[in-house]
Design goal:
The protein is of the alpha+beta class. Helices cover 18% and strands 35% of the residues. It contains three helices and twelve strands. Strands 1, 2, 4, 5, 7, 10 and 12 form a seven-stranded antiparallel beta sheet that branches. Strands 3-6-11-8-9 form a five-stranded antiparallel beta sheet. Strand 8 and strand 9 form a beta hairpin. The protein is globular, with a radius of gyration of 24 Å. The N terminus is likely disordered.
Length: 276
């Protein structure tokens, strides 16, 4: 039938056009922290949502309920360059936690809160509990706290789409603490555009961030996304809030593969017509 071959041609064209423009997308990380629940000694309350007075550390989640964090395509979450006394400074909190605040959503440095930026559960780096003045409060020379996501080899992809919500704030406007987000490939590391600054800087400290990175220049080495906060001693405390972490890798099919796919579908249409 003519309709069968025509349909095959149209389908082949649509698949080729669609794959050429969008590519094949693989989700490497998708984390909104909504699956993190309270765990208590009372079996009747295990799994209850977090509330304003509770938080769960990343280490505790990984040790007791690791399924509450996304591990798709990654080899896990790490806490690095942090002494054991500071491990509690990586934690998940509810949207109504005191560190997020209840006032204006305008970013104000030094107001001891995240300016009501988050409307769902989120991750905190650099504060163990309460408002923004919690521990750790840095050490001489700086205490760097890093959360990393390792995606392994990305040589089979063409680009990397990265997006997340972030807040960086301090309870002292003169605080020299630093926050940065970087992508490391092997021994090479590059900061994501606009995300390498110190507390007194004038650039925006809360935003919905999104970027696309071409992977053609990356070497055949593991790729790691790093969120780092450096706190210095004696200048007040600072913290970072993160939410809606999403990392996707895109692979665009080779033209030869698309042509072969199209030829196969067209051939199927002709065979179908001859049989009829």
């Amino acid at each position: 039938m003519k309709n069968a071959s025509k349909l095959a041609v149209l389908l082949a064209g649509a698949l080729i056009a669609g794959n050429a423009s969008a590519g094949v997308v693989t989700t490497l990380l998708q984390e909104d922290f909504e699956n993190v629940k309270r765990v208590t000694t009372n079996p009747n309350t295990n799994g209850d949502p977090l509330n304003a007075a509770t938080e769960r550390t990343v280490l505790d989640i990984l040790a007791t309920t690791p399924s509450q964090l996304d591990h798709s395509g990654t080899s896990g979450y790490w806490v690095r360059n942090v002494p054991p006394a500071s491990e509690g400074a990586f934690n998940v909190r509810a949207a109504n936690n005191t560190i997020d605040g209840t006032g204006s959503t305008t970013a104000v440095l030094g107001d001891d809160e995240f300016d009501n930026f988050f409307d769902s559960q989120f991750l905190v780096i650099g504060d163990n509990n309460g408002n923004l003045g919690g521990d750790p409060n840095g050490i001489a020379g700086g205490l760097t706290q890093t959360l990393s996501f390792n995606f392994g080899l990305l040589s089979s992809f063409d680009s990397l789409n990265i997006s997340f919500k972030y807040v960086f704030d301090a309870n002292n406007p003169a605080n020299p603490d630093d926050f940065s987000v970087s992508l490391t490939n092997g021994t090479d590391s590059a900061f994501l555009s606009g995300l390498n600054f110190s507390a007194p800087a004038t650039n925006t400290r809360n935003a919905n961030y999104s970027t696309t990175i071409a992977l053609a220049s990356l070497s055949f080495a593991p790729t790691t996304l790093k969120f780092s906060l450096t706190e210095f001693n004696g200048n007040g405390s600072s913290a970072v809030g993160l939410d809606n972490l999403l990392v996707k890798a895109v692979a665009v099919p080779e033209p030869a593969s698309l042509a072969l796919l199209g030829a196969g579908l067209i051939g199927f249409g002709f065979i179908r017509r001859r049989k009829t």
